[in-house]
Structures are given as C-alpha cells and as structure tokens.
Design a protein that fits this description.
The protein is of the alpha/beta class and 261 residues long. The chain is 27% helix and 26% strand. A hairpin with a 2-residue loop joins β9 and β10. The termini are far apart.
C-alpha cells in the first residue's frame, strides 16, 4: 500500500506579529513548525504502516529550501520518503496555484492508495488546498475526518459536523483531510532523528513538474491578501459587586443608561 501525506511548514502562530505599516506577517526570528493538522495526517498514515506490511509513507511539501527541516522531522517520526517542491516560480502562490503545483508533483509520484492532508494550515486557515488537489487529481475526497477505518478497498470515516458527525465511505484512491480529534501525533525518536539525516530528500523545481508557469506563482493567483492586522484590544470589562439582586439592578441601570433597553 502506498500512502502520500501533504505537509506544510508554517510559522508558529503563537509568536507571529504583524507589521503595522505593511500589514504583513513578520517572519524574521519566528520559529517554523510542522502544521498541526498535517501532523495528524502523518500520524494516521504511520498508524497504517504500523498495522500492515508493505506500507510506504511519502511526505510531499511545497515551500522554500528551509522546509527541508520540517520534512526531516516527518522522516524522524517514521515516514519513508520526503519530496520538496521548491522554486522561485512558485513564490506567492495562493491556494489555487499551490494546488496546481502539488497535484502535478503527486501525479509525478505515481499511483497511490490514500492521500492524507491536514484540514487547513494555521497560517491561512482556508481549508482549500486539500479539496482542490483531489479535484485536480480526479479522486474522491472526504474532509474533516475524526475517525478512520480501512475495509478492503474502501475507507470508512466519521466526518465531523458542527452538531455531530456523519459516516462516509469512499473507494481508494482517495484524499482525506484530518483534524486534531483523529489522533495524537507521535514524537520523534532518537533513532528516527539519526536515520532522518541519513536519508536524501528529493527536491523538485519548476522544470521538474508538468505544470505551466501561468498556473503557479503570484501572477497566476486569483486571490490576494489585501491586509493582515492585529485586532484592537477591547476595553476593560466592568465587574458588578453585591448580591445577585444588586448586580441585576446595576446591570439593568447600565443598559437603560446606554439606551440598550
């Protein structure tokens, strides 16, 4: 069984700051990490590798050369191979252009059984790239997977909804996007870290893929981020003191004063 995993290196959003003038992310000095939802995708692939024989797990990512560090982490967790799609031609790609590049890379990898991807990346929160890749590869897709089971040539999953879940099945090959409720990603092992640096990471540039320039990069991206900003902090709240009746009286008086009631 051949399993592919899409992963992305993202800035740690706990440390991200916004340039107040340019309205863009300040990435200098910010730690880069494996996107959390992608870690769940990788873990589910590795669980299949643990359970069944003859399972290979290949991680595919698109990003700058430093994304190799994140791919080494994936190898250290247990992935067999890693592929990085990297080049200036891909710079500035939005979700549509990104999915064009990655789907071309996945087509070059060849036939596979399951493609796992995280629900969304924490630096964009669009949840669009995975479904777009599935559409371009012409395979079934199931998003927001919170439970997974393999039955013959089918996958049976619980797909999370706002008020519960639905059970959905699909024939392989298919794409599944995962959420944090699916599993708990494993830690790297010392042996895994050592082995990860003994392996080669395959790097594919623009000319290695069968994708035209007019479908990747900033100029090919139909969507643009107009501005990013940090919301203004809200004013301090008002604490009401006294008994419950006294607090209600204070609240009603304040609401009437502001002509809310």
């Amino acid at each position: 069984m051949k399993i592919l995993v899409c992963a992305k290196q993202v800035p740690n959003t706990n440390e991200v700051k916004i340039d107040p003038v340019k309205g863009t992310l300040i990435r200098d000095g910010v730690e880069s990490i494996l996107n959390p939802d992608d870690a769940n995708a990788l873990e589910e692939a590795l669980k299949l590798k643990d359970k069944y024989q003859d399972v290979t797990v290949t991680v595919v990512s698109m990003g700058p050369p430093q994304a190799e560090t994140m791919l080494r982490e994936c190898l250290a967790m247990g992935a067999d191979e890693a592929i990085l799609v990297s080049g200036r031609e891909f710079g500035g790609s939005d979700t549509w252009a990104t999915s064009n590049a990655i789907s071309s890379a996945l087509a070059k990898v060849g036939a596979f059984d399951i493609l796992f991807a995280g629900r969304q990346a924490i630096d964009g929160d669009t949840a669009q790239v995975g479904p777009q890749i599935a559409e371009k590869l012409g395979i079934p897709q199931i998003t927001y997977v919170q439970s997974f089971e393999l039955k013959g040539d089918e996958v049976v999953v619980q797909r999370q909804l706002e008020d519960g879940y639905e059970v959905v099945s699909a024939k392989m090959p298919c794409l599944l996007t995962t959420i944090k409720e699916l599993n708990k990603p494993r830690y790297m092992t010392m042996k895994g870290i050592y082995d990860a640096y003994e392996k080669d990471i395959t790097v594919w540039g623009f000319h290695d893929l069968d994708v035209p320039q007019e479908k990747v990069g900033l100029k090919a991206s139909p969507t643009k981020v107009f501005r990013s900003f940090t919301p203004e902090p809200k004013g301090a709240g008002v604490m009401l003191n006294g008994s419950a009746r006294e607090q209600v009286t204070q609240l009603m008086g304040s609401l009437k004063e502001k002509h809310i009631i």
